[in-house]
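Retry 2 of 3 after timeout on previous attempt. Resubmitting structure tokens to design endpoint.
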């Protein structure tokens, strides 16, 4: 049997029959070697202790009071550390209560700003409020709602051993 185009038998390409035979197969080593030659050689050096500490420190500095910032290494915070507004904040479920406090405080501040006529303040507070509510919703969606206290497990009382004849009845 031959393929539609060309004269190579289908069996020559393994168990699959291609509409057209593959024109070229490049070994992975060839592709990787080409990529290495295109990248600067300094990217393949061993990092200094200071560089390594800076890299590890990046992840330590991403831990926040209400979660973890998922911003990429070496990038600046474009939200000027208004983390509750940021889509890169991964909220910690244990901090749900804190986020509820933040949300309630924002509601109080919006009420105050409306009462005092601080129109410029209201818009920013509403953006922060939407962010806080979004983080609370993320936690609720991930956990399936509020946590349920199941209590402490207890050891079950020992069951008497069944006799073989009694089990067959």
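Retry 2 succeeded. Sequence:
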């Amino acid at each position: 049997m031959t393929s539609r185009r060309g004269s190579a038998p289908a069996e020559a390409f393994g168990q699959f029959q291609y509409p057209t035979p593959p024109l070229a197969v490049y070994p992975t080593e060839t592709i990787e070697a080409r990529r290495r030659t295109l990248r600067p050689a300094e990217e393949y050096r061993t990092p200094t202790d200071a560089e390594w500490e800076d890299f590890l420190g990046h992840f330590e500095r991403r831990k926040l009071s209400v979660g973890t910032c998922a911003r990429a290494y070496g990038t600046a915070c474009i939200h000027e550390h208004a983390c509750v507004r940021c889509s890169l904040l991964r909220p910690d479920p244990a901090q749900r209560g804190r986020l509820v406090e933040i949300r309630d405080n924002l509601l109080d501040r919006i009420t105050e700003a409306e009462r005092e006529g601080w129109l410029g303040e209201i818009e920013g507070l509403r953006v922060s409020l939407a962010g806080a509510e979004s983080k609370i919703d993320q936690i609720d969606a991930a956990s399936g709602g509020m946590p349920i206290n199941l209590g402490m497990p207890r050891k079950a009382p020992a069951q008497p051993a069944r006799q073989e004849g009694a089990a067959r009845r």
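Attempt log closed. The radius of gyration is 31 Å.
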